[in-house]
Amino acid sequence: MPFYLLTFRPQPSEFNLLNTFFTVLKPQLEDNPNILNYACVIEKDNTINRHCHTLVEFKQTKSKNNQLRQFYNNKVFKDFNKMLDKDRALTNHRWSHDDRKLKDTREDFLHVLGYILKEIKCNKRYYTFSEEDCVEALEYYYQRERIDKSQPCEDGLTVLTSKTIHANVHDFCKKNELRPREKTLVMNKMKKEGYMFSQVQVKDTFQELDMFMNKEEYEDNEELPPEDFSNMYTKYKELTTRLDRYEQIFKNIEYDCQTSTGVPLSHKTIYKLCKGRFYEFSDSDDEE
Asked: What's the predicted TM-score (pTM) here?
């Protein structure tokens, strides 16, 4: 019988999409008459790296059509992909799927089934394969792992990009009880854990995340940041300079009037005279 491994891995910033995908996937596995057995697991749940693995056993048919393609042609999957395109999600439905057909061997079947079931304590794990097959698959997978340990291990580095930095910093701060506003401290700790920042601009990332994670501390009357005070001070200086200039003009007018007429004029009177330069006096002003 043909076996297929289906993997859905959303973009880390949108890992909640996995809930939607899983919701539409499971009924399709149960109701499809061409599916004999399946094993479906959400790995690394409650982390930004959560993803879904599914092993499907299709019925053997005489048709040469790709059974996996026919499975995904179901309307519910088409609607799911349209939703991603319409919402301009970061998760691309073409890139988020990593599917392959298994080799027609018992070895490949056991290795893949064991790989899917390896997280014993995962929250979401469903399968219809026999218990005997599952036990044998897990034993085979772990024995293979012992052999493969002689191969070079992964370097454990996480190279951050503009699409993953927010999700990774948020996840790291949450797990380690850190404040994103402590930018230098957080970055140093993350670098020691293998997170690489050289490919991204961090500019406002940490301040944005701190506001998101500590909303109660950022009320509408929150103190202005230093750059806003700087702008206000510049405007204040401009305004005081203008007022000083007007004050000097008034003094000059007062001096000239007093010199010419011998009658001292108050600033209020001067203001009315200046105003009359552009507007007609009212009757009450004339009477005065």
From this structure: 0.56
